[in-house]
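README: folding subset

This subset contains proteins for which both the sequence and a predicted structure token string are available. Records are stored as plain text. Below is the entry for DUF2301 domain-containing membrane protein (223 residues), shown exactly as it appears on disk.
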Amino acid sequence: MTTPSPATISTADQSAGQLHQGMFGTYRITAADRREVMAYRISLLALAVAQLGCLVQWAWAGATWIGPWLVVMAVALGLALHWIHIYLRPLHQALRLLWLLGVGGGVALAYQAGPAHMGNTLLAQPLWIMAVGPYFAALTGLGFKEFFCFRRLEAVGVTLLVPLLLMLALLGVVPLGMEGPFWFLEAALLLVLAAGKFRLDPAADVGDKSVFQELEHRRRSVR
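--- output ---
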């Protein structure tokens, strides 16, 4: 997704009713577009808050009963991936598939270990990271999209830290239980990223609608 011109990226909603010039023609940002953008931003913020809450509980009360936080994280990322605007449909579907696989792995972990012991099982048996890993791959993809579109430095942190920390834990280089400070850093970066989204004009998150419309037209023409 490419970003609109700097004039359309502001601290206020200036896109309502305006005619925008895109790569393949003109387009307008509709009320439905603005609702989708707000739903995406709220979902992303909920994800960041839930992840930070999960880490706080893990650090100060132990890994027992972090399951509810994980449920909120799963739902929030799923909703964010539903509302996110990505030009390429196969890429969008791939992120959703990764999310679904990761959630399935989480359900398997909860069934095997019990909801109260998911965190402790991850600590004791790092191979379970492979089961829930696709979820974090989807999160990494979301972070990459945010960096690609907006060049946000905090998005770089999310994109790099998540796969790096999981890989180090999976390979046994750095135990998951010792990565806490770096996961807190990643969660803080995600929170900054999510909160900062609310300062942008909705047109920034929608992107060039003429590209969406052109790709949809080509897809239908192939049928």
